[in-house]
Amino acid sequence: MPEMPEVETVRRTLTPLAAGKTIKRVDVWYDKVIVGDVKSFQQQLKGKTIEKIDRYGKYLLFRLGDLTIVSHLRMEGKYRLTTADAPREKHEHLQFVFTDGSALRYDDVRKFGRLQLVETGTERIVTGIKHLGPEALSPEFTEDYFAKALKNKTKKIKNLLLDQTVVAGLGNIYVDEVLWQAKINPVAEPKDLTKQQVQDLYEAINSTIKEATKLGGTTVHSFLNAEGQAGGYQDRLEVYGRAGEDCLRCGEKLVKIKVNGRGTTYCPNCQRLKS
C-alpha cells in the first residue's frame, strides 16, 4: 500500500499535470470505485476546475472550490494523464475528461481504492480522514504528543505505529525501518521502552519520512508516481525485504516474523527484546 511518502510524491507529480484543468465529464467504468451515487458524482463535477491537490495521511484531496474529491489509493491505485480517446487499459476504472482533450485516469489492479465527493471543509468529518491522528513532520506531531500517545498502551509497538489514529501515513515498510533505526524490537510494548528510545523512535519516524519523500517514495511492488516513474527509497531500505541477509549495523542475520499478521523484518541482535 502506498504510504505517506508515496502519496505525497503522487500529489507533487500530479499537481502540474492536473491543476488548473476543467472537467468536461467523468467516465466511470467500475461503479464501486465511487463512494455514493455515481450519477451525482458525475453531474456535480461537470464544469469544475481542479484548483489544487492536497494530501492528508494516505488520502489525496482534489480541491474544486466548494467541492473536494477525497481519493484513497489503497493497495495499488495510481493516476496517469493521457488523452480522452486513448484505448482503455485493463485496470482503468475511471477518467476525468478535461476541456483541453486530456484525461486523468485512475488505475487499480486490486479495485480497493475509492473516491468520494464531499463539500470542502467537511472532509475531516464525513470521510475516513476523521479517524486519523497527526502525520509525521506536521506541527501537531510533537515529541510530547508522541510520548503521550504511547503511554499506558498495551499493544505491541509495531501495531501502534501502524495505527493511523496514533500517527497518520506510516505503513509496513517504514515501520520496520524506523524500529530498526531506533533499535526497538517490533513486539515490545511502550512500557518496555526508555524515554531515550521513545525520543529515538520519534526522530527516526521524522527523518525516515522526510528522506523517503525527498527520494520519491519506495517502489517494492508496483508503485509509480503520476509521471510513471518509480521511487528511489527502495535503494536505502535497511531491513524491509532483506530477511536472511546481514544486518547492515551488526552483521547478524535479519529475521522475518509475523506481527498481527503483518510480515516484519528485524535484527535479533540490534533489536533485542527487554528481558
UniProtKB/TrEMBL annotation:
Residue positions binding DNA: H91, R110, K153
Protein species of origin: Lactobacillus equicursoris
UniProt similarity note: Belongs to the FPG family.
Protein purpose: Involved in base excision repair of DNA damaged by oxidation or by mutagenic agents. Acts as DNA glycosylase that recognizes and removes damaged bases. Has a preference for oxidized purines, such as 7,8-dihydro-8-oxoguanine (8-oxoG). Has AP (apurinic/apyrimidinic) lyase activity and introduces nicks in the DNA strand. Cleaves the DNA backbone by beta-delta elimination to generate a single-strand break at the site of the removed base with both 3'- and 5'-phosphates.
EC number(s) per entry: 3.2.2.23, 4.2.99.18
Catalytic activity: Hydrolysis of DNA containing ring-opened 7-methylguanine residues, releasing 2,6-diamino-4-hydroxy-5-(N-methyl)formamidopyrimidine; 2'-deoxyribonucleotide-(2'-deoxyribose 5'-phosphate)-2'-deoxyribonucleotide-DNA = a 3'-end 2'-deoxyribonucleotide-(2,3-dehydro-2,3-deoxyribose 5'-phosphate)-DNA + a 5'-end 5'-phospho-2'-deoxyribonucleoside-DNA + H(+)
Entry keyword annotation includes Zinc: yes
Residues forming the catalytic site: P2, E3, K58, R262
This protein's encoding gene: mutM
Cofactor: Zn(2+)
Official protein name in the record: Formamidopyrimidine-DNA glycosylase
Keywords: DNA damage, DNA repair, DNA-binding, Glycosidase, Hydrolase, Lyase, Metal-binding, Multifunctional enzyme, Zinc, Zinc-finger
NCBIfam families, sorted: fpg (TIGR00577), PRK01103.1 (NF002211)
The FPG-type domain, residue ranges: 238-272
Cofactor binding comment, as recorded: Binds 1 zinc ion per subunit.
Complexes and interactors: Monomer.
Example GO molecular function: damaged DNA binding
Residues forming coiled coils: none
GO biological process assignments: base-excision repair
